[in-house]
Amino acid sequence: MASELPSSLSTSTKSKAPFELPPVLIDLETRLEQYLKSPEKLLIHDFRRSQRFIQRVPDPAALLVVDLPAVPTTIKVTRDPTTGQLLSYKEDAVGREDETSKNSTSMRRAPGPLDEAVRGSSSNFPFWPGGMDEPSASMVAHSDGLQELDFENGLLSTPPGFSQGMSFNVENPPDKITEALPKPSKKNIFNVVDVLGGGDDDTWLSDEEQWEEDEQGLQAYSQKLKSMKQEEDQLELNKTAKIHRSDSLERLTKVSDRPAKMPPPTAAPTIPREEWAVWVDISTPVEDFFKKIPDLAYKWPFELDIFQKQAILHLENHESVFVAAHTSAGKTVVAEYAIALSAKHMTRTIYTSPIKALSNQKFRDFKQTFGDVGLLTGDVQIRPEAHCLIMTTEILRSMLYNGADTIRDLEWVIFDEVHYINDSERGVVWEEVLIMLPDHCNIILLSATVPNTMEFAEWVGRTKKKKVYVISTLKRPIPLEHFIYTGNSTKTSNEMFLLVDANKNFLSTGYQKAVDAKKARASKSSTQFGAKGTRQGNTKQDKGVWLSIVDMLGKKNQLPVVAFTFSKKRCDENASQLSSLDLLTAAGKSEVHVFFQRCISRLKGTDKELPQVIHMQDLLKRGVGVHHSGILPIIKEVIEMLFQRGLVKLLFATETFAMGVNMPARTVIFDSLRKHDGTNFRDLLPGEYIQMAGRAGRRGLDTTGTVIMLCKGDVPELSDLHKIILGKPTKLESQFRLTYSMILNLLRIEALRVEDMMKRSFSEFHTQKDVARHKAELEKLKVYLDDMKPIECQYCDDSLEQFYTACKKYVEMRNHLQDVSMSHPQMVKALATGRILVIHLGKQQQQLGLLLKVTSGRNEKKFATLVLTQKDEEICDKRKSNASKDASHVMDSFSVDLITDTGLFLPENGYGHAVVELVAADIVAVTTKTIKVAADKVIDDFNKRQLFRFKNDPPSQSASLATQELLRLTETNLQGLTALHPVNDLGIRDIDLVEQFMEFSEMKAPLKDHRCLLCPQFSQHFEQMKSNMKVKEEIMKVKYLMSDESLQLLPEYSQRKEVLEVLRYVDDNCAVQLKGRVACEIANNELVITELVFENVFSDRPPAEIAALLSCMVFQQKHCSEPNLSPTLSTGIEKIKSVAESIGKVQKQCGLTEPVEDYVARLNFGLVEVTHEWAKGVPFAEITRLTDVTEGIVVRTIQRLNETLRDVRNAARLVGDPVLCQKMEEASSLIKRDIVFAASLYTQ
């Protein structure tokens, strides 16, 4: 091209083309010639581009001009949300330009990428949770933590994460200082060390005479500084020291004033308690409802109930509500209005449900109502930009932790089936979400009736710092009638007896009729030789029972029926054995056939011929259905839709059918009132029974709902039935627990603490709600502490507090060992009538007592004891209970007589006797002595003489003899009696206990050597010390209750944090490392999967094997057939087990109680073979033959496996492993096919 250029140029210049270059531009030939002939003009020779010095022009006036900084705050207007009226102004902080989702929790931060708007990112900061005080500069400046810093010794010299730091030691040797400092000039010079030392103004020496330019002068100056520093320290010490006046000789006989007693802790000033839960009265109609809301955001074709109107009124006022209503009462109306209200306000609403199936159903229902509705699940994302999003609670938790920008637009968050918070596995998710929700999100809680709605609403309101209005229905809209059915054939099909009527009256006559009917039909051999106790019936006779009851209900027009059976196997068996039952007409059969074929038309040919599909089609054509987790999801949805159409007349279902699904029936039947809860068999809880029985009764169609309990064996006990049917529902209880995912997600945000999450959990609610009272109590105690006068005594100054501490330890040890001794079998045997005891009664610390009788009270045993008294003295039986041994008041009943061995109490100038009732805390020792006594006669005689008419009667002979014998023992053993030895007499062999008894026996002697016992006024001084120490201990107790140390889960948090440090997920400063960030990407078994990723366990395996091995993370069924594994899969399983075992051992070493075997047993490898074959492309019909796990469980496991593969893919991207990332993509594409990932019918 270069060789052709000149010829072309010459050609162009010679030709007379009509369009030539304009004369103002140099032609190309000339430019080329200049370029080749003038190399000095090239840019590389331009010296002006090199670094050069620019002379600075002084401009002092520029120092007077300062650029104005950005305004940190702005004025915002507060308006009424309904009318828009201006209410007030407030100063609000202005967001900084550098605030992003990667470094800020503020709502004012810049939005993130559009593709992260819905799901967020694990690297994002969450938005600041509502109810927590967002940290600001003023809060940091006034925090208590800064005031308590020790600026002399508490500052760090090495920054976090650095191996070395800087030394700020001011006492450097003079030679090093000399080397470090340049030669001083004749100008005024200040020593840098002295300036940084922050001394007084008089230490700033500027006189030239005090400086010398040699090493000697500098050394002399350094010595002078040291001496001045020592003088200042001594002066400060003299200022703070207090000179106490010692007791003079004149005060030896003077009795000091009685010290003021500490006020009881409960005497703190009453703090007006702020109520966060407000009960809404729904007993009276809302007359002005349409006046208050003339333009409803959504209108229904029916009249609203009172509780629905009250809820809507509060929604219009932008207030949070908790609606606890009976099943089928219409709670969904409240959710619908919130969705419509957000559409009107152009905001967004999130509707959460506990299970994925319920999310799909609500998506279909709300889509038909509102249209603009989206769905977010683990594997499905439909219209994420919609103003109403439906999702499971786990998805919302992930969005909150990942800081999704969708949260900005939220106005309402609806929690359906809140009573699911009681679930031990997933209940913690509800608490996490409620705590993490930002302040601008209002909350709607929907739940079945529970007994502690106000308590739960109070917790939510206190956590979010906003009032929650509680609305609860008084009764069911459709009352229920509960029956017992004892029939087993068509001849006995009329044996259905009413047990509880529609007004909740329990009819014992109906129960008795059921018992009589069972007895009348029982055979003679069964009566004489049958098994004792409750018999559960014969499964072979179930067919007759079901045929008879369905026939009876059909004649009474009480179909459709939901038959709750607490076993998937029993559901299938009951449906299969009713082959002769046909409940549909020809038109119904045709409709079922057409609908079923249309629904399964999307399946492939082999999937349409699955045994379960063919079997269910046959059952449905006869009006019978089965609903449990083992049914294929698409078939289960077909059954639900046919049931809603009224084409399924008899549905055998497990408990999950009652979870939030709006599918009422005419009748509900309980196959049994007992279930297996994963541990053992037990009776149904009232809440479980009410949840399932509530499916009976269709609003607008039935006047009452019918609930029938089958009695295939014996009739249950009357008390059991009453408890199940009319018992109180289960309370909402916290299932909060710490997880590694929660800890890592919070540790990566410095402003959020795990302790704050624990404080705001429902489990800590009762402790944290008293913080205001504790603060007021603490202030009062501090005032009292400041007013306390010190004990000025030359004997007590030094040793009295030490003596008190040693005595307290002695008493605590004595109480502990006494509890151990009293519960020992030999001691229980020794505490019989006639045993001599050493007791403390009132002021008498050492007194003999004769045990007369032992009785068991509600909380502790009572000991009727005969004691000696002064003549004509009346015993006031007001003693401390066992609760007096609380740590802060353990010294209340302590007397120095226990230490100084003053001897046993002996009456002076005559004696009397009394029978007193003691508790274990009143017994000092159990002696080896026993005497014979007529205990009943002594007690009866004393009780008789307590009556006024017999008050002056002489004691009986039995009482006199016992009293005289007790007096004789006291007189002959004034120094005390021998107590039962814990080893020789009681036979205690536990090494730890024996050592404690030995330690206790050696604690008494050193107490007598304290100098304070020589003080003439020791008793008064000791009482004052007890009062002072009780105040200090109470202050420590209140501070403890207000601190993080009082949190129940704090020890477990420390242990789990130590596990993360050992495994290098966080460093020593709790900064989240790369492994920790990877673990944040994973939803379950985060530690095991992260370790597998970092150990490259999956890198050299094909995608099908990776998918198979990871199935152990999501498969939950414990018992199934053993898989037939290849050698490579077996090797992979062993590797996974070894990794899990190593993690379990680290947990054990760090203090967690979970056994290593249990941690490894979390991983279930029963579907490894099935998943491997499925990933290799084997049809679903063939893989079901490889295991006894039901089809529905297999489908659900593979669906959850896809979510895990996606998590590992994201982890591989974070680590920077493109090979593993590609393999995860391939594995996901291999399993996502056919019936396993068939789209839900509710989303079509």
From TrEMBL:
Primary residence: cytoplasm
Biased composition (Basic and acidic residues): 89-101
Catalytic reactions of this protein: ATP + H2O = ADP + phosphate + H(+)
Gene3D superfamilies: 1.10.3380.30, P-loop containing nucleotide triphosphate hydrolases
Keywords linked to the UniProt accession: ATP-binding, Cytoplasm, Helicase, Hydrolase, Nucleotide-binding, RNA-binding
Domain Helicase ATP-binding, first and last residues per copy: 312-468
Highest taxon listed in the record's lineage: Eukaryota
Subcellular compartments: Cytoplasm
One Pfam family named in its UniProt record: DEAD
PROSITE patterns to which the protein is assigned, alphabetical: HELICASE_ATP_BIND_1, HELICASE_CTER
Domain Helicase C-terminal stretches: 580-747
Region feature (Disordered): 88-121
Protein name according to UniProt: Helicase SKI2W-like
Species this protein is from: Priapulus caudatus (Priapulid worm)
Gene: LOC106811870
